[in-house]
C-alpha cells in the first residue's frame, strides 16, 4: 500500500508538471448548480448539488485520483499496518479553518463522532471501525475490528467531510445557526447565498496549499429550467455546466459550440449506474424468468444511443466497469424480443398489469420510461406508466409500492461500499430510498458479500466478487440498464478543472482561467 | 330542424368549423384502423425531418416515433377529453343553475355563493393542483377540467331560468299543479337550451386547450399520446427539430378554431332575432 501511495504521489507530481503550463492567477468562474441544494453543511446534507458546492469549502483526509488511488488531502501521509487493521494518518500542519482557528486531530475525532449520527453512508462505512484515537495533534489512528479492504476509500470529502469542532462542540449540530455560513478548511470560503439566484464562494487567502487556489471565486448560478441553462452557457453567463445540467439531447449541440471543452471524466468515484427496481414481491416479478425476459426485452443499446446520445455504457451486471473487481464474465442479455416472449410464455405470464414508474428527473428520464414501456409492451407485457413528482416517487419507492421503478445510484469505487447494499437481505428495510428496495434475498449472495468485504488479500476478494456477480446476473434481482456518463461542459479558457475522481466537487482548487 | 340547418349553413364560418370537427371525429374514430401501430413505437431513426421518408410523412420525434401517428392518436384524446369533460360540466352546471334560478331565495343564495367560490379561484392553477394531487390520469384530467368549467354554465342557466320563470306558460304550469321537476325539465330548460349549446361548444374548445396545457406541463396521462404532450416533449428540442412541436401545435389550433367557428354558427342559427330577420 505504501508503495502504491508513493507511486500515486509520483504520478500526481508528473501530471501536475505536464499540465503546468503556467497557471494564471485571478478571475471568477460562473458555474451552474442544479438543482438548488437544500443546504451546504456537508455533514448533514449529502445531495449531489450540496457535494458539488461544499466539496470546495470542506475537505476530507484524502482525495482520489481518476483511477481512485488515494492522494493527500488534509492528511499528508498514511500507513496501513501489515495486519490491515490499523490505519495511521499524519495530518498536515499549519492548516487553519476559514475563521482562522487551527485545524488539529481533535477536529477529525469530533467529525467522525458527528458523522456517525448525521451521515448514513459514513455510518455504514464505519461499521468495521473499532476505535479512532489521536496520539498527538497531528496524528489520527483508526483501528478496525477486522481487515476491511475498502476502508482506504472512505475518506473523500463527501463521504467523510471534516467539520470544525470549535464551532459545533456542545451544540446540536442539526440546528446550529453556523450551518448557514459553513466553515471549512477548503480552498474556497462561503460568502453569500441568495436563494433562487446564486451561491458565492470566495478564495481562501490562507489556503494550506501554497499558491492555490488560482481563481478569486466561484458563482454557482441557480437556473431552474434546462433550456435556460443551455442559453446561459451560450450567452456566456456561465462557463461551467457540470454533468446533468442540461438535457442529454442538448449535449451534442452545446458541445459543438466554439471554444467549448467536454469531458466525461470526474465521475469515477461515483460511477453512477441506472437500473430498474423490479419488485420481487410482486407475484409476476417474483418469477426469475419474467425478470430475465425484461432484460431481453429492453433495448439498452437504443437507450444509450438515442436517449443518452451515445454517452455511457450498457451495464453487464451489478458492478459498474469502473469499480474494483468488476467482471464481464457473466451471462449476457442482448436485446432479443423473441427470447423475451418465449421466457414470458414459459413463466405463464397472462397479461397481468405491471406498473412502471419513471424517474421524475426531467425529459431524459421521461423519454427513457416511454421507450422501456414500449419495449415491454412489444413483447406482450401489460404496462401502465405511473406519473409522479419527486416526493411522490420517493414515497412509493420507500413504501415498496411499485412494480418496476427507475433509479440510479452511486457505487463509490468498491463493491463493499456501493454494490452489496442493493442485494443483501440485511439491507431490506422499509422507509429508505437506497439499498435493497427490490426485496431480493439469497443466502448465498448474503454470505459472499459478507466474506468479500473483509477478505484479504485482494485476489481473494476478486474471486468472491466475481462469483457473486455471476449469481446476481443469472437471478436478475433488478434490471441493470446503463453505466451513466455525465459530461462536464466548460468554456475552454477554464483549465485543469477535472483532476480527481469526484470532478468539479473538489476540482476548483486546481482550476485556473486562461486569459 | 330544417330551418336550423339552413341557418347554420348560411354561416360560412360555421360550415368550416363543422367540416373540421367532423374530420377530427372521423380521424379519432377510425384512425386506429388506418394506423394500427402504436404512436409510442420507435419506428425510424430519431429526429427524421418531415417529407423525407414516405413511411413517416411528418418526421419522427426525439425517440424516432412517428409524428403523424401521434397526431392521429392525439385527436382521440383531445376530442374525448373535450367532449366528456364538457358533458360532465353540463351535468353539474345545468341542474345547479336551474334549481338556483327556479327556487330563488335562500337556495339561490347558497348555490350561487358555492358557484362563486369556484369562480374566484383561477381555473388553470386549480386544474393543475387537482391533477397533481390526484395523480395524472385521463380520469383526473377530465374531472378537473369539468370542475373548473361548470360555474359559468350554472350562472348562465340560472339567468335564463330566472327570466323564464315569470313567463305566463310557466305560471300556468304552476297553477295547474305540475311538479317542480316537471316544470323545470319540461317547460323551462328546453327553452333555455340555445345559449347553453353555444356555450358548450366553446367549452369543448376550452377543454381541448386545457388538456393540452396540462399535458404540456407534463401532467398528461402518461399512457396516452396527446397533442399537448407532443408539444411539451418537443419544446426543448425546438431548435433542432421544429416539426415535433409545430404539427401538434397546428392540430390544436385548428381543432380549437373549428369548435369556436361552430359555436359562432350555432349562435347565429339559434338566435331567434337573427332567425326572424331572415324570414
Can you tell me about this structure?
The complex is a heterodimer of chains A (515) and B (279). Chain A has 515 residues and is of the alpha+beta class. Chain A is built from 16 helices and 21 strands. The longest helix of chain B is centred in the N-terminal third of the chain and has 37 residues, at 67-103. The mean pLDDT of chain B is 90. At the A-B interface, helix 9 and helix 11 of A face loops of B.
Distance between the termini of chain B: 15 Å
What share of the residues of chain B lie within helices? Answer: over 70%
How many strands in all of chain B?
Answer: 0
Largest interface: A-B, 27 and 23 residues
Cα-atom Rg of chain B, whole angstroms?
22 Å
Give the biggest beta sheet of chain B: none
* Oligomeric composition of the shown chains: heterodimer
Distance between the amino and carboxyl termini of chain A: 41 Å
User: What are the segments of chain B in which pLDDT stays under 50 over at least 5 consecutive residues?
Assistant: none
Which percent range describes the beta-strand content of chain A? 15-25%
Largest sheet of chain A: 6 strands, mixed
Report the uncertain regions of chain A: 1-19
| Helix/strand/pairing category of chain B | mainly alpha
Q: Count of helical segments of chain A?
A: 16
The tally of helices of chain B reads 11
Q: Overall mean pLDDT score of chain A?
A: 90
The computed structural class of chain A is alpha+beta
Query: What is the global morphology of chain A?
Result: globular
